[in-house]
From TrEMBL:
Family per similarity comment: Belongs to the sulfatase family.
Top-level taxon in the UniProt lineage: Eukaryota
GO molecular function terms listed in the Swiss-Prot or TrEMBL record: arylsulfatase activity; metal ion binding
Cellular compartments per GO CC: endoplasmic reticulum
Keyword terms: Calcium, Hydrolase, Membrane, Metal-binding, Signal, Transmembrane, Transmembrane helix
Signal peptide: 1-16
Span of domain Sulfatase N-terminal: 34-419
Cofactors: Ca(2+)
Coiled-coil region(s): none
Membrane recorded as keyword: yes
Membrane-spanning residues: 196-213, 220-239
Entry protein name: Sulfatase N-terminal domain-containing protein
Length: 583
């Protein structure tokens, strides 16, 4: 009996130790906030991965994340273009609230040397986690601005928005970064300015010739004025546009320009090495890593290790390279023993770019599965429904699929919750996903979601209580070109205003539960709740119209704001990859 009591006494501390040892299986180290690894691909279509139905492009590492975690099937971007979508993702608020929308043809930042960007007054999830003691890092694409008033004020820079460490592209990857690729930015304006410059030059040459031959008296003052006007026209065209690779295609480490223009061919390997290095340097403390890939935005990479390996040309090769990079990040997390204490998240900023194709490479944009539309097409589902995968072994059940409406904006309140941040905040449009992910609730908090094209409210979705239906109401839709096509192939980017859209009165209504491809508009004859849908969404729109910012995306190039390695305008340097200075 005494022996039994002694064994019983010994059992209590042993049991306690076992429980403590097992705590890693249920959410990480005791008393420590979880690590966060966020992975975002640029322009990735929801149909480009095996776990979302693609059976020809090989994505075993992304598929593994889904099988070991939770896959969201109705994960929605707040905008179908990168700048407004990423602003909403970072802040948990629709882009119009921070002035990151546009009324005109340009809906994203076009010049790194512009004053537009995420306002210094805005709060990002990185800033909130930094205040909670996290080490925060962004590796890859930013595209939310750099300077405000002068070169070097860095008011929009990632370091000012909560990221302790930044390495990557303060702008984005685009065609002008690669010699021989077609131009991307304001090509019609470039052509107009070029023609004007040539006309002025030709006129000046003609007048000089006429005067020299004595055929006509031409004032020297007129020739001087025309010469100065020609110089001005040349500068307005040549400096901002012909030197775009120097101005926009740069790499920064924190606030220092370390490569200008950048060497695109080695960019994926460098971004991956930086992301892995950040994880390894911070293994002993809670960290947030936002790994924002340059893939799969054009120009597509042409890595010999993946070239010709897929069944979908260069685009498929790039997807398989992305999958390999995801595998390396996952391997780094797991090999350091961080799997059970790290929440990993995978997504895209918006849908694939359907109009991106040429005769040499073929299709260069993604596949948005059965969903209509794509990048820059307002509220059509193909441009805003994106992959969403969460993995956290021991905390989130493996292999689950959630069909409830969720948003990229939900990451902000979710990360706040995980960091135990209870401080007051601004008005948020996202919701904490943990109750849904952990199975504590079955229904999303998003009864209504709002879809924007620029600053214009384009569509609303309503998920009524007690119903599987998800109704989508389109107030206007972009006009596809040529007629009957599935995108804006004449302009490559759909516009949100004027003759570029068709307004619908009454609005177009679809039930995404029964008609996910938005092919069959509902009518009063086919939908008993038709009138109720219009009433409920109209009331939701009125409640939604809150504080708006009068600011919009600013696109003009301002030389005095241009980040520069060296003395402006003689900017140029190459990164020292032999002796990197990681911090």
């Amino acid at each position: 009996m005494v022996v039994g009591n002694q064994l019983s006494l010994l059992a209590h501390p042993v049991l306690s130790l076992l429980l403590l040892a097992g705590s890693d299986v249920t959410g990480g180290e005791l008393g420590r906030s979880p690590n966060i690894v966020l992975i975002m691909v640029d322009d990735l279509g929801i149909g480009d991965m095996g776990c979302y139905g693609n059976d020809t492009i090989r994505t075993p590492n992304i598929d593994r994340l889904a099988s070991e975690g939770i896959k969201l099937t109705q994960h929605i971007a707040a905008a179908p273009l990168c700048t407004p979508s990423r602003a909403a993702f970072m802040t948990g608020r629709y882009a119009f609230r921070s002035g990151m929308g546009s009324t005109g043809r340009v809906q994203v930042l076009l010049f790194l040397g512009g004053s537009g960007g995420l306002p210094p007054s805005e709060t990002t999830f990185a800033k909130r986690l930094q205040q909670q003691g996290y080490t925060t890092g962004l590796v890859g694409k930013w595209h939310l601005g750099v300077n405000c008033e002068q070169r070097g004020d860095h008011c929009h820079h990632p370091n000012q928005h909560g990221f302790s460490y930044f390495y990557g592209l303060p702008f984005t990857l685009f065609n002008d970064c690669v010699p021989g690729e077609e131009r991307d930015i304001l090509t019609d304006l470039q052509q107009t300015l070029r023609n004007l410059t040539l006309m002025l030059g030709l006129g000046l040459f003609t007048l000089v010739f006429v005067r020299a031959c004595g055929l006509l008296e031409v004032s020297l003052w007129l020739l001087a004025a025309l010469f100065l006007l020609s110089l001005l026209a040349t500068a307005v065209w040549y400096l901002p546009f012909k030197l775009l690779p120097t101005w926009n295609c740069i790499i920064m480490r924190n606030q220092e320009v370390i490569e200008q223009p950048m060497t695109v061919e080695t960019l994926p390997q460098r971004l991956l090495a930086e992301a892995e290095g950040f994880i390894k340097r911070n293994v002993d403390r809670p960290f947030l890593l936002f790994f924002s890939l340059a893939h799969i935005h054009t120009p597509l990479f042409n890595n010999p290790a993946f070239a010709g390996k897929s069944l979908h040309g260069r685009y498929g090769d790039n997807i398989e390279e992305v999958d390999w990079m995801i595998g390396k990040i996952t391997e780094t997390v797991d090999s350091l023993g961080l799997a059970n204490s790290t929440l990993m998240y995978f997504t895209s900023d918006h849908g694939g770019h359907l109009e991106e194709a040429d005769s040499h490479i073929g299709q260069k944009g993604g596949w948005n599965s059965i969903y209509k539309g794509g990048k820059a097409m307002g509220g059509w589902e193909g441009g805003i429904r994106v992959p969403g995968i969460f993995r956290w072994p021991g905390r989130l059940a493996a292999g689950r699929v959630l069909d409830e409406p969720t948003s990229l904006m939900d990451l902000y309140p979710t990360l706040k919750h995980l960091a135990e941040d209870t401080q007051p905040d601004r008005e948020l449009d996202g919701h904490d996903l943990m109750p849904l992910l952990e199975g504590k609730v079955a229904r999303s908090q998003h009864e209504f979601m709002f879809h924007y094209c620029g600053v214009y409210l384009n569509a609303v979705r309503w998920h009524p209580h007690g119903s599987e239906s998800i109704f989508k109401v389109h107030f206007f839709t972009p006009n596809f070109s040529p007629p009957g096509a599935g995108g804006c192939y004449h302009t490559k980017i759909c516009q949100c205003f004027g003759e570029h859209v068709t307004h619908h009165d009454p609005p177009l209504i679809f039930d995404l539960y029964r008609d996910p491809s938005e092919s069959h508009p509902l009518t009063p004859a086919t939908e008993p709740r038709y009138a109720e849908i219009l009433e409920q969404t109209a009331a939701a729109v009125e409640r939604h119209r809150g504080a708006r910012s009068d600011k919009q995306v600013k696109i003009l190039w301002r030389p005095w704001l241009q980040p520069c390695c060296g003395t402006f305008p003689f900017c140029g340097c190459k990164e020292d990859t032999i002796n990197p200075q990681n911090q």
